[in-house]
Design goal:
The protein has 2 domains: 65 residues, DNA polymerase, domain 1; 311 residues, Aldolase class I (TIM Barrel), CATH 3.20.20. It is 37% helix and 17% strand. The chain has 383 residues and is an alpha/beta fold. The strands form 3 sheets. Strands 3-4-5-6-9-10-11-12-13-14 form a 10-stranded mixed beta sheet. Strands 1-2 form a two-stranded parallel ribbon. It binds S-adenosyl-L-homocysteine and iron/sulfur cluster. The site of S-adenosyl-L-homocysteine has 16 residues, from β10 and β12. Iron/sulfur cluster (SF4) binds next to α4.
């Protein structure tokens, strides 16, 4: 077969400024670029011929030089609670997941930023898969573009101001702050009135705590920030989240305080994953109160969601509620996250997709778990 390289660009790789620059190089005026951006992101269009207010000559150029395409969908799963999970093919045997969570007053899309993750958190299904690569901007934006397009078509929504997805959280597969160069244009597009027009409060980046990159995010696209805390002291956090060995809690708290100067909300959300028998005692809650004394914050407690061979336990419901009460009594607003979509493995930490591991992560995780006493030596030796 005669294979000719496709040299066209995927327009989902650009934020609105990027589309303007690309159009300018073709001799097109900025307002033409804005019209194009609106077709793509407000109407979720991918057919240049349908963009009827663009000059025919411009449309012809677009067809020659560009295309609009999300990653292909491999599977879609529907949960009994209305949650939906798409598995997207990102090539070379890698696939990533996005999850739509409908609620009464909002529709949230949880999207992935990397094929796998290199952070190696002990409790995470994505981390267990290892890391392959960063997603391109088009692959990040494509998840939102595709989900909104599909949901609109199903619901018969045509008004560009009626959005089905009102909130976006970067809490799927991957560490968003390790892929800032591709994540920032995506965030800009989510916020742009000629893109998805979401307010900065409705776009949340969740990070395991990369301190320098938190500062970069503050400078480049300050959206709502969620920080995965998961332990009240360095000794425990070092064990379950290797990132802590490089960026200990004192540095992380300082980064949170700096972020608050530009954040769209006047608090940081701390996610705290409750792992049975590891970090779920009342004393851990009391230590947390001390830790965050100087950081205006809210807590979101997540109950550990198991996945195959996770070797970790969910804490009892009473333990979670008692933990929440200690924080709430200390004046820290604390909620317990509802588990959604666990019947289709779409709950937090269960996203695994398909990842061709380039990092030997699985082997190292076993060693970490043995050090923590979660795995008996015999099991570790067998693996
Ligand atoms: N890498 C980023 C965002 C993706 S993970 C981060 O770590 O923050 C999104 C959230 O799911 C994080 O708070 C993460 O700690 C949590 N999580 C990971 N594994 C989990 C599991 N098995 N059960 C419940 N939550 C989990
Ligand atoms: Fe990566 Fe987040 Fe999972 Fe940790 S919890 S391994 S940072 S995706």
């Amino acid at each position: 077969m005669n294979q000719t390289q496709d040299t066209r660009v995927n327009l989902l790789d650009f934020d609105v400024e990027g589309i303007k620059a690309w159009c300018a190089a073709l001799g097109e005026k900025p307002y033409r670029a804005v019209q194009l951006a609106r077709w793509m992101h407000r109407y979720c269009a991918d057919d240049f011929d349908a963009m009827t207010n663009l000059a025919k000559s411009f449309r012809a150029k677009l067809k020659d030089l560009a295309y609009i395409k999300a990653p292909d969908v491999i599977t879609v799963k529907h949960s009994a609670d209305g949650t939906r999970k798409w598995l997207f093919d990102v090539g070379n045997g890698n696939a990533v997941e996005a999850v739509f969570i409908p609620e009464d007053d909002r529709g949230t899309l949880c999207i992935s930023t990397q094929a796998g993750c290199a952070m190696g958190c002990l409790f995470c299904s994505t981390g267990k898969q290892g890391f392959n690569r960063n997603l391109a901007t088009s692959e990040i934006v494509g998840q939102l573009w595709y989900a909104e397009k599909t949901l609109r078509e199903e619901a018969g929504v045509t008004d560009p101001n009626d959005r089905i997805i009102s909130n976006v959280v970067l809490m799927g597969m991957g560490e968003p702050l390790q892929n800032l160069s591709n994540v920032v244009p995506a965030l800009k597009l989510f916020l742009d009135d000629n893109g998805y027009g979401l307010s900065r409060r409705r776009v949340t980046v969740s990070t395991s705590g990369l301190v320098n990159q938190i500062d970069k995010l503050a400078a480049e696209a300050p959206v709502a920030l969620a920080v995965s805390l998961h332990a009240p002291d360095d000794a425990l956090r070092d064990k379950i989240m290797p990132v802590n060995r490089k960026h200990p809690l004192a540095d992380l708290m300082a980064a949170c305080r700096r972020y608050l100067k530009v954040a769209p909300r006047d608090f940081i959300t701390f996610e705290y994953l409750m792992l049975g028998g590891i970090n779920d005692e009342p004393r851990h809650a009391r230590e947390l109160i001390e830790l965050v004394r100087t950081v205006p914050c809210k807590f979101n407690l997540i109950t550990f969601n198991p996945f195959p061979d996770s070797d970790l336990k969910r804490p009892d419901r009473e333990k979670v509620l008692a933990f929440a009460k200690i924080l709430n009594d200390a004046g820290i607003v604390t909620t317990v996250r509802k588990t959604r979509g666990d019947d289709i493995d779409a709950a937090c930490g269960q996203l695994a997709g398909e990842v061709k591991d380039r990092t030997q992560r699985a082997k190292r995780l076993i060693e970490q778990k043995r050090a923590l006493g979660i795995l008996p030596v015999r099991d570790a030796a067998q693996s």
